[in-house]
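pasting for the record
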Amino acid sequence: METDTTASPPSYTQAVSDAADDLLQPVILVLDNQSIHAESDPTVPLYQVNRSIANLGRATSVVEFARMERSAGTAKQRSRHIYNLHHRQPMLRVPFARHAEYFIQAVAAPARRLGHLGLKQACMAEHWTALPVDMKGWTEMDRPPFVADAAPVLEAHHRQGAYKWTDGDGRDVAIEYDSDREHRLLATASLQRETLDALVALWCCRVWQQSVDQQPSQTVPTNHLAHTLPMGWKKFR
């Protein structure tokens, strides 16, 4: 009696779990509260964050970002903490700022290959550039500076109702879709694992930024500014 030895092709989740530095195939990722999964396999998370980033406000300053990995020889998953996502609210947001308001801090060896990256807003609010940031001497109360004259690692441009991500060579790599109910990232190109990790982490920062910007702005009373400004500035009020 013959036995059918034809095996079914692996799911995307299995392929991601088994791949090391291999190219990962295009995939649609869905943010579901604190979990990110492939649209084709919603029961198995690929990434996790420890806060619901789509509903965060200004009070939160750091979120842990982990990749879910499958233990060797088993179907069990374990989380690997690879980035810390940071938000440092400036007194005044200005385009082309020299310091990052949203940035990802690499905390695991694979993520350190690309380094720490921050999102820099262009003069138009609908264009963001992911650039290296200098974390030397950084403290949790600071916003790290962008590395001078560094080339972009990734960019997000708003086109035709969606954000399109490109790599440092200008190649299209992903499309970001947002609605009132769901946030999705369509990876349109095959990417190295470390690049996909950084892309997803930066996308999470973008979702976080949208959540913060949708909240009522906080204004500082004029009389409070009068007490906090240097003496020489008060006469210019």
